[in-house]
Amino acid sequence: MRPTHWILRQSKARVAVLGFVFLAAAGPVAIGLEALTRAHLDDVVLQPPPRFYTRPTVLYPGMAVDRQRLAGQLDRLGYQRSRRSRVLIGEYYAGTRTWVIGRRTFRYANRLDAEAVSTVHVGYDGRIRSVNDERGRRLRSLALEPELLPGAHGGTLIDRTPVTLEDVPRQLVDAVLSVEDQRFFDHGGLDPRRIVGALVANVRARRVVQGASTLTQQLAKNLFLSPRRTPLRKLREVAMALTLERRHSKEEILQTYLNHVYLGQDGARAIHGVGRAAQFYFGKDVTRLELHEAALLAGIIKGPSFYSLVRHPDRAAERRNLVLKAMRDLNVIDDAMRTRAGAAPVRLAKRPRRVQHGRHFVEYVAQELRERHGRGELEKGVTVLTTLDMDLQIFAEEAMTRGLARLERDYPRFRRDDARLEGALIALDPRSGEILAMVGGRDYGVSQFNRAVNARRQPGSAFKPVVALTALTQQRGYTLATALRDEPFTVETAAGIWRPVNYDGRFRGSVSLREALERSLNVPFARLGMDVGPEHIVESARKLGIEGPLNPVPSLALGASEVSPLELTRAFGVLAAEGFRADLHTTLQVLDASGEELSRFEFTGERVYDAAETYLVTSALQGAVERGTGRGLRGLGYGGPVAAKSGTTNDFRDAWFIAYTPSMAVGVWVGFDDGRSLQLPGSRAALPIVARFLKAALGPYGNLDFTIPAGIDVVEVNRDTGLRAGPGCRGDPEVFLRGTAPQESCSPYWASDWRDRRRPTRLPRELRDLVADLLRRLMRGRN
């Protein structure tokens, strides 16, 4: 057997004289090449492009499984569905109560998660009962590989998964050297025997039929030179190859070559290196390649397009067999191995779908990483596990696309060439601060501007919960039952006279704070804002996580200052998290190219309100869904527990709808970039998008329900008087902070003095007649 790369060492002496001749001829071309080639090998070639992944799906006992979503994720990852429970790696079986998944090896940032076949048992309630390995042993969990997200804008179109030489199977190295450079370990960058042989062959054929470039020359050409064939370029190639051989070991050169060699296309992205090619073509890690697959990869190096495994499998098979013959001639394989490998069909793995979802999100993450770690670290090929949930991202994009299309269909005035109707959506986990989905606009290809993060627009009535929270927590006697005046009033401001009006132009006299919030009445909230003070409203907004400029003016109470969709959704998320303000996160883990951890998600945040205080606002916003401006959610088919608030600016330029459950907060903005009027409220423009998203994400009946925290009293209150209900004075349940509920009752039989309460109360005449009649009937029955 011929010795291979881990046994042989280079012998450069035999071409030393030839090397000096070329270097002398190159003259100034060789100046600085040592530093140039060394920098490229050490800092660029071995680095992959930045890779962004979704959050990994982890299956564990007790977890609720959505069959359709799990199957969809496996399909997107390129797993083949099997009809039998005995699956191979890269396949899955979906039974009635059993899932069997042949998880593939997953490599990222020089880390390797081994392949495994696992069985997931699901109970009748749709929850996982157990997870077992091939031997039946119980596992704590099963992690599927995350889904690859599209790269950041302006990033490289080269797709590479770096591997070390130790990871590359011996038969793949032998296959490459057999057809590309048989004397690689014997020459010093140039192969005189090959040069002479190629010269003779080309003279005989009177055309170029054979090349003489060594593997080192190919590497130098691919790394540093343009594809143009000129004598000067060939001279530079030789000088660079000799410099590479002087400055790097054979193992370093071979490893770099195997990581850099071009092996085909994945759409617009070029596949470079055997690590990525093994994943792309065969759905397996390079360490798992079989002989016939190794020969295929080695064979297509000569012409990845001409010998394309996808478009020309017959050509590729012929080229593979030529590689196998060369390997047999060199005695690196025997006849039996050659025969078996030559008979194997060209079988490619089902490739993962090319994902284009979440492009605004990836750009946002990339910008955060540049600010946190520096631009240079990002360009060195970090691997980023993000917080994005691909299912939710797909649901969000579909909801936005269909929602805007519906608006343009129903309102032809929106279909204009000079400006398109736009929208933004944010979904986040209120307790962890993880951003789960982000839509920055209707089409990233048309506009890369991220409206979810960077657009600042007036929130209108969607800001009223901030005002309500301020009033309810100031210890000034405000409760949800407090009566507010809904009557005309004016305020003198620096900008002139301000006269707030309700959306319908009507005034209702006296309304409770709850009713004013549920029905989104402007005038009562304008009065409330003036009473609690705009400065205190700004303080509340800051505690909720709104960081942008806020003007402490009277109109602030009606949402006159601008906020971003991300800020406003985060503020509602604090209500969902019962007063805990989680720090926002977009990444779970960031690794450098060598697999070293640069950063990891840490659960951080601060409690800014008591759970009982935020529950008051949540209760009112639940009422807005049942009776107020958010009731359209029910009409569109979402029946789960939810609190929500619509928002519309005075001139209808911006339409908002923000909703939250205990597990998720979602905000939607709809409008035009140039600020033209929609002439539609948020409940008609933005609410349907939220409804579609919630139904897809949580199901039509939702998941978790809100719970009443400690420190809350539930008291029946008469709506007209604001007092406790009692006999002869009906009321509805209302929530209060402990000790703040009204003590006085509106009942005509209520006595304010305890001594009066002990006296027998004379029943009204109608009630006495009713009791007497019942007694008479009872006596007749006995007789």
Spans of at least 5 consecutive residues with low confidence: 1-32, 753-762
Structural class: alpha+beta
- Beta percentage is 15-25%
Assign an overall shape. Answer: elongated
Determine the number of helices (DSSP H or I, runs of at least 4 residues): 26
Helix content: 25-40%
Distance between the termini: 118 Å
Mean pLDDT: 86
Q: What's the alpha carbon Rg, rounded to whole Å?
A: 36 Å
Task: Characterize the quaternary organization of these chains.
Answer: single chain
Largest sheet, in brief, is: 6 strands, mixed
Q: What is the strand arrangement across the widest sheet? A: 3-4-5-8-9-10
Q: Total strand count, please?
A: 30
Features:
single chain, 783 residues, alpha+beta, 6-stranded mixed beta sheet, 5-stranded antiparallel beta sheet, disordered N terminus
What can you see in these coordinates?
Helix content is 37%, strand content 16%. The chain is built from 26 helices and 30 strands. A six-stranded mixed sheet has the order 3-4-5-8-9-10, covered by helices on one side. The chain has a five-stranded antiparallel sheet with strand order 17-16-28-27-26, with helices on both faces. A four-stranded mixed sheet has the order 1-15-23-24, with helices on one face. Helix 16 (464-472) crosses helix 19 (534-543). The longest helix is centred in the middle third of the chain and has 21 residues, at 390-410. Mean pLDDT is 86; it is low at 1-32 and 753-762.
Brief summary of the model shown:
The protein has 783 residues and is an alpha+beta fold.
Write the layout of secondary structure elements.
Layout: H1 16-26, H2 33-45, E1 51-53, E2 58-59, H3 67-76, E3 80-81, E4 91-94, E5 98-103, E6 106-108, E7 111-113, E8 116-122, E9 128-132, E10 138-139, E11 142-143, E12 158-160, H4 170-180, H5 192-205, H6 215-224, H7 231-247, H8 250-260, E13 262-266, E14 269-272, H9 274-282, H10 291-300, H11 313-329, H12 335-343, H13 359-373, H14 375-379, E15 383-386, H15 390-410, E16 422-428, E17 435-439, H16 464-472, E18 483-486, E19 491-493, E20 496-498, E21 509-512, H17 513-518, H18 522-532, H19 534-543, H20 565-576, E22 580-582, E23 587-591, E24 597-600, E25 605-607, H21 611-627, H22 632-635, E26 643-648, E27 654-660, E28 665-671, H23 682-685, H24 687-698, E29 712-717, E30 732-737, H25 754-758, H26 765-782
Parallel strand pairs: 1-15, 3-4, 12-14
Antiparallel strand pairs: 2-11, 4-5, 5-8, 6-7, 8-9, 9-10, 13-14, 15-23, 16-17, 16-28, 18-21, 19-20, 22-25, 23-24, 26-27, 27-28, 29-30
